[in-house]
Every structure is written in structure tokens, then in C-alpha cells.
Specification:
Layout: E1 2-6, H1 10-18, E2 24-26, H2 29-39, H3 45-55, E3 59-63, H4 69-79, E4 86-91, H5 94-105, E5 110-115, H6 118-127, E6 131-134, H7 136-141, H8 146-159, E7 165-168, H9 174-183, E8 187-190, H10 192-197, H11 202-220
Parallel strand pairs: 1-2, 1-8, 2-3, 3-4, 4-5, 5-6, 6-7, 7-8
Helix pairs in contact: 4-5, 6-8, 8-9
């Protein structure tokens, strides 16, 4: 499974990259807003995406804000040339699906975002999306089952050998990652805090304390 960090914060991206686990980055308008607030200035969107793309070797998803076909196409054509590893993020709406087909024909890869049903995922794959992003946590938020959605998408894609990669998004905690990996999702994108939690275990902490305590006794005995 590939790990993407879901952020527009350059420091967080560097930290994940230094851990040796980073395969890519996903961003969205909300994350760009948060990064601008942290920086204390309004960041230039295209310039910032370029800086992110320089930090990682894997794909960087940059989202359009248009919701009509012409607008999506125009924004996508301005985002894709920023760097070879930029993937354009397009919402799963009717004009978005039409744009995915047209963009694929132009050689522009798309991450189809805001997926909440298996039928949406099937349509996006047929249109030619490089990635589909089901939002697990947001499905859980409405008392439904985000992991069930992911399982259905992975199964359907496997049934027909579809090329679209399943990118588990809106991940809230380590068990989302575990279950997504067991189901065969190609990618999990998550905040840096969740990546750090994947390392933690109380028995590791207890064992380390015991080793260090025994070593101290050995050294002084």
C-alpha cells in the first residue's frame, strides 16, 4: 500500500518524507486555506503546488474549484503542467465525469474525489480516472459504513481488472489504515498525525523502558 499525506503544509510533508514512508501528497482547498493561515500570508496556489511537487517523487493531487466542464478543463490544463507528478483532482459530479474522459484523452491524470458510493466509483473508473477517492470518515460521520464502501469498490474494480487505483481518503485513525490495507486499497491518504500513530504501541514503549533500565543496571553494576 502507498502512503500519501493529506496536507498542504510543507513542514509536514518534509517530516513524512524524512520518515521514508511518503509516496505522495493529496491537497484540497480546505488544506490550502489552512496552510495559508499557518504561513500568515495568502499562498499562491500554483506556486505552492510546485513547491510540494519538488519535495516528493510520488503523485501530488491538486484540486480544481470549478464545477462546470469548461471551467474544470481550464483549471486542469493550468495545473497539470506545474510538474510531471501533479495529478488533477476533480469532483465526482456529472461535468467532472465528462472532464475526466476528456482529460484522459489529453494525457492528464485525474484523481476523482468526493466519492461516496460504489456506483460513483464504477462510473469514475469507466471515464478513465487514475485514482478514485472514497471518503471513509465522512461516510462514518453520517452513521454509515465507510469501510464497507471501500470493500465494495475494491471488489468491483477487481472483478473487472479496472486500472483506476483506489485511494482511501478521509482516514481518521490507524484502524482505517489496517482495514484498508487488508481490503487491498492501493493508497491510503491521511494526516501526518495518523501516520505517526501507526508507529505507536504501548508494548514497544514498555519494552524499550525495560531494555534501557536493564542497560543502566548493567553499566553501573
Amino acid at each position: 500500500m502507498k502512503f500519501f499525506v493529506d496536507t498542504a503544509n510543507l513542514d509536514e510533508i518534509r517530516e513524512a518524507n524524512d520518515m521514508g514512508v511518503l509516496d505522495g501528497v493529496t491537497t484540497n482547498p480546505s488544506l490550502m486555506k489552512k496552510a495559508s493561515e499557518k504561513a500568515g500570508v495568502k499562498l499562491d496556489f500554483h506556486d505552492h503546488i510546485g513547491r510540494i511537487a519538488e519535495l516528493v517523487q510520488g503523485d501530488v493531487s491538486a484540486e480544481v474549484t470549478a464545477v462546470d466542464f469548461d471551467g474544470i478543463m481550464s483549471e486542469a490544463r493550468s495545473l497539470a503542467p506545474i510538474a510531471p507528478n501533479v495529478v488533477v483532482k476533480v469532483p465526482l459530479i456529472l461535468d467532472g465525469i465528462k472532464a475526466i474522459k476528456a482529460l484522459k484523452e489529453e494525457g492528464i491524470r485525474v484523481n476523482c474525489t468526493l466519492c461516496f458510493s460504489p456506483t460513483q466509483a464504477l462510473i469514475a473508473a469507466k471515464a478513465g480516472a487514475a485514482y478514485i477517492s472514497p471518503f471513509l470518515g465522512r461516510v462514518d460521520d453520517i452513521s454509515s459504513d465507510g469501510m464497507k464502501l471501500l470493500e465494495e469498490i475494491v471488489t468491483i474494480y477487481g472483478n473487472y481488472d479496472l486500472d483506476t487505483e483506489v485511494l482511501a481518503a478521509s482516514i481518521r485513525h490507524p484502524m482505517h489504515v489496517v482495514e484498508a490495507a487488508m481490503m487491498g486499497a492501493h493508497v491510503a491518504t491521511m494526516p501526518l498525525g495518523v501516520i505517526k500513530k501507526l508507529i505507536m504501541h504501548p508494548l514497544t514503549d514498555t519494552g524499550l523502558r525495560r531494555f534501557l533500565a536493564d542497560w543502566e543496571v548493567y553499566q553501573t553494576g
